[in-house]
From TrEMBL:
Residues 8-199 form the Thymidylate kinase-like domain. It comes from the Bacteria. Its EC number is 2.7.4.9. Keywords: ATP-binding, Kinase, Nucleotide biosynthesis, Nucleotide-binding, Transferase. The lineage of its organism: Bacteria, Bacillati, Bacillota, Bacilli, Lactobacillales. The gene is tmk. It catalyses: dTMP + ATP = dTDP + ADP. ATP binds at G10, P11, D12, G13, A14, G15, K16, T17. One of its GO terms (biological process) is dUDP biosynthetic process. Coiled coil: none annotated. CDD domains: TMPK (cd01672). Phosphorylation of dTMP to form dTDP in both de novo and salvage pathways of dTTP synthesis. Pfam families: Thymidylate_kin. This is Thymidylate kinase.
Amino acid sequence: MNGKFVTFEGPDGAGKTSVMNKVIVPIKQEIGNRLLVTREPGGNKISEEIRHVILNRDNTEMDYRTEALLYAAARRQHLIETILPALDAGKLVLCDRYVDSSVAYQGAGRGIGMDQVARMNEFATEALLPAKTIYFDIPVEIGLNRISKHRDSSKIDRLDVETTAFHKRVHAGYMEIRKNNPDRFVTIDATQSFSQVVADTLDTIHQIAAEYFKES
């Protein structure tokens, strides 16, 4: 592959999606169509349809393993149809969530087992991992408080309304993943002001994908 794959990860309320939406504006101005911005679950028609099923707050009866399998299925389609073609074309791919989310949320949060979910996704992705993962770290209570205060009720999904204990398990899962992948993870303190988090994120992207900006 000629491109570079960078993912954004973090617990609920960390603000990673808002930060991504902010940083892509100047990045697009610098590198133009050599940038692809996408998300999981989603990123193309089939994966977005699976996203709706997974996150629909009415689907309270969904089995945890079904949930994990749906995420992996959406990820497979996203990879084949969207991510790999962009990487083959030499693009910088910024993706809002990827495998680490499943390992943290379903593996640790749901208690299915982090190793089991990782193996499931290894099959789905043929073991493709990002070059770098930007992790937005925030204490669970602060993140959930942000959601309750600032997120539009129409955008609160099935995972947002889970218990604090669930979100603490997710955070602990992320800490374990980060510990096991020190070379891949770059951590940003998401408790800082939004403008500072955006600035730190832009600096990080310029560092880890410097070759794109030198050519622009």
